Amino acid sequence: MKNFLLLFVIVTFFNCSFKKEQNLKVENSPTDKISVLNFATAHLSYTSDAKSANRNLNDKQVKDAINKIVTCLVNYKPTVICIEMQPDNNTFVNETYQKYIINQSNRLNYSDEINSIGLETGRLSGVREIYGIDSQIGFDYPSLIAIANKKKSDSLFVETIMKSYDSVNSLPIFEQFIKINSSAYKNETFNFYNFLATMHSENNFEGADIIADFYKRNLRMYANFCDIPLQKNDRVLIILGATHTAYFDIFLENNPKYKLENIADYLK
User: Is 219 within 8 Å of 205 (Cβ atoms)?
Assistant: First the structure.
């Protein structure tokens, strides 16, 4: 009788565990995941970034390229768009967006990719609302470059990276956007920030502390993103600077709630 009871308990335990596992698989099945397209943009006008690619937005070739990028993003059919502005601006952003839908001369006074790509993609896609997810934190990037320049091998590495950035920024705009959205470019950028984290003076950890703050900024941005009330049928387009996008790829790939789409399927 004791053996029978023991067998019964064991069978019941494994049966419950199997059902739990099956339920978990159903909850995290691909059909239940929220689709996210994580799009890296260059800052088209004002930016505090050390390297930028300001463009003449009145140039016909630039306009045509931006329109091509917008068409690629519209093909994703987003229902929600996230941009690099802080959430406390959301009311103003969406008031401006509603005016923009009617008259495209209504624009946000910010780096122009938010208007030319963000608002325009929203307008053409019928997006209902645009969310800012940024969380600004001071970033003393120049001090880390100064430390790196004190050592020849580090200085040469920084110089190589800066030349690579200049090369990418000099590309025709559509090719530039393809490049900064590639895994190789994101990995290079991510590695460069990890390199900066190792920069320090004797008995100090300036690099680790400063890059930790930048990492905290990206985590806060991700927290803002996760606060957005999304439905499982939503299709979310995130438009951020390329370095933020590199971090977001990692966050999204490891969250079973979201399905990170391949940007190369659309940007072509």
Answer: no
